[in-house]
Amino acid sequence: MSKSPSTPDADAGSLVSPAGMGGIVGGKGFDFQTRYIVCHLPLWMTDGAFHQIFTEGTGDIDIRYVVDATSKRKHIQIKDHDVTPSEFKEVIETFRAFDAAMPGIYQQFTLACPGFSPQLRPIETGLARLRGAASFYDDTSDALALTKSDVDERLRKNGLTDEQMQFVYDKVGIEIGHGDLAHDERALDIFVARLLKHPEFAGKIRAMVQPAYAELLRRISASKGVTLDKATLESILRASVLANLSSEQSVTLWLHNWTKENFDPPADYELDWTEHFDRSSRRVPPPNTWNDDLVPRLDALRKDIMATGPVRNIRLRGKCTLSTGVALGAVMPLVGGWVFEIPQPPAKGAWRSDAVPTPGYALQTEIVEGSVDGSDLVVGLNIRGDGRAEIISFIESTGELPQAYVFMSPPSQGSQSIGGPEDATAMALAVRDNLGAILKARQLRKTKLFFYGPFALSVFLGQQLTSIGQVQLFEYQNPGYVPSCLLRT
Fold first, then answer.
1. Which of 134, 351, 463, 475 is least crowded, fewest Cβ atoms below 10 Å from its Cβ?
2. Helix or strand holding residue 150 (H, E)
3. CB neighbour class for 2 (10 Å; exposed up to 12, middle 13-18, buried from 19)
4. Quick check: pTM over 0.85?
5. Peptide bond into 479 cis (omega under 30)
6. Is 483 left (phi over 0), alpha (psi -120 to 50) or beta?
7. pLDDT tens for residues 106-140?
8. Vertex 408, ends 402 and 410: CA angle to 5°?
9. Distance in angstroms (rounded) separating the CA atoms of residues 125 and 103
10. Where are the domains of the chain?
């Protein structure tokens, strides 16, 4: 016998019921839900009553507030897509089931999502208008009667009963507009903006920037009638602002491929792979060595560093192949908080992977159609020269034609095409976004990647290659190329 939709589940209040374990068991929407939590933590933490957060308890998120030794709890259900009428009704019933099974425990239930379907939008706008005006008309009971009647009608049209409607009015909040949380970079921008509102961290950032303000005041005052060029001003800012960053906690990694050398500063961690590489012949390990030995060693290194504490800044030293750079970045991605500091001659200063990307970076992208039966993309990153003909010739010699060849390059090619870490981070971002869009449009999940450019950029690129399927890397070995490691992003 099927249960009536208006009858709460008897076990809805159990943390081991199917409803209570839906997110843990299913795992759907984990990324979106986690971004929602992280981006809201700065807001919740500024509330003096905020006490605890419990994820995947009775549902997605439970928040506990404590005021004068009295607890209040809020339950939040998160959807990573626009909610439909039937789903909205289902969520309301789930809320009612929790409320009935745990009476008096939860004071508020919230549905958070990117948006409502067109049929539901009148409900969201109506509730927002009604609740927004309530405090203004709190001294007259009839002022909002007509508005409430209109909202009642909108709820009924979407299948809600009187009991469900009253529950919505009494306990349900609606949050829409969370579409940016589907993207790591946009979510990061939201997190940074909200963290800057937290008194403790806002003060620290002010303290970091304040020396630059004072130094610029002094230099400008002393330079009246004298021209100050951009390079001079940037050096003043670096000396005053970045001086504080030099003392940040970091670890030094020596990673040896072509040669084994000593570097400064001394290594906290060292990986010696020289037995697998030979510079004179450009010999690199076969794919099984990369996939079964070297890349797992990088993953083990990541875990070792994480086990020692919160340090995520890596000072990298060593003469390495480009495949090693991409693989290292992929194992320690930017979204995981990892930041690399890498010498990139002839630049005087090290390049950092958290450099602010060059605004308006104009990545050049060319698509050459391959075989309609192809099941992957071949991507060539033409940075220091045009490798299209060579890459196409090599792929044709293998007999495994791709669905398309994609060639990406900076606004101009050559040895100076990447002007610094800002260009490098901008290109890495642009490559990831363009590649992700092309793979999605063509419904492909594998990429063969050919890269020839600055080593630091190879690491930055690897840090951005998340959630785009399999990436097979290749190394140049005159004549032609050989496959190196396979990354599963």
1. 134
2. helix 145-157
3. exposed
4. no
5. yes
6. beta
7. 999 999 999 999 999 999 999 999 988 988 998 88
8. 170
9. 29
10. 198-247, 251-488
